[in-house]
Amino acid sequence: MPMKGSGSTEYREIDRWDGGVGWIAYPDEEMQRASHAVVGDDGGVWVFDPVDTPELDELLAEFGDVAGVVVGLDRHKRDAAEIATRHGVSVYVPDWMAGVADEIDAPVERFGRRLGDSGFESFVVVDSSLPPWQEAGFVRRSDGTMVVPESVGTASFFRAPGETLGVHPMRRPFPPRANLSGYDPERVLVGHGEGVLAGAGRALERALDDARRNMPGAYGRVLREMVS
Asked: Which domain of life is it from (predicted)?
């Protein structure tokens, strides 16, 4: 199984609810790169950290017109520029995130606490130079939707045995507990793997609380997958 897919593929739909949908463009890749489209308070579709795929525009059209494409992690430029250009919208990048906008070949709009008129509040998850890691999270309190691009995920290399949601292997020793706690979301959408649509608040708190305790199991799983 390749770490990252390429070429044409049939995407796998994930995380569908009344207000949005997710997809994994290359279902067989180990990284399980997940993308999401969420209907904003403005009625537009906000696309988070997308990986492009054939028939994506038909999927997005089910929910309305695209209002913007969002980059929530400095490494998640992915196909944001291509999708934004195709839909005639801007790529939205947090105003504190350095070095990302210059690498996007599309109009870029910076934002602060509020993501346009989407209803999402943005907050810093990680802003670190060692290792380089700039990550923004998003929460919409009106319906309990949270988007976390990288610090937590459900792909197998994130999770120790028994975990529903796990902290990224590089963040386990020092999980961003202070920045992710206190929201009690209804659903957590992640950048790698399917989201958590039931019991999400509890799953998030457990992931953060158990990150260090479950390090041996998590790292053991990563090692086994690397050598298998």
From this structure: Archaea
Is residue 2 domain-resident? no
Give CA–CA dist 132/28, Å, rounded: 28
Which residues share a beta bridge with 36? 22, 48
Question: Which of 46, 27, 28 lies closest to 37 in space, CA to CA?
Answer: 46
Alpha carbon 193 to its chain's center: 9
Number of structural domains found in the chain = 1
Which pTM value belongs to this model? Answer: 0.95
The model's pLDDT over 173-193, given as tens digits with 9 standing for 90+, comes to: 999 999 999 999 999 999 999
120 belongs to a structural domain: yes
User: Nearest 10 degrees: CA dihedral of 69, 167, 24, 147?
Assistant: -30
Task: For residue 56, give the amino acid letter.
Answer: L
Residues 6+ apart with CB under 8 A from 53: 9, 11, 23, 25
CB 219 within 8 A of CB 169: yes
Cis status, amide bond into 131, omega within 30 of 0: yes
Q: Which CATH number fits the domain that encloses residue 103?
A: 3.60.15.10
Residue 86 falls within a domain, yes or no?
yes
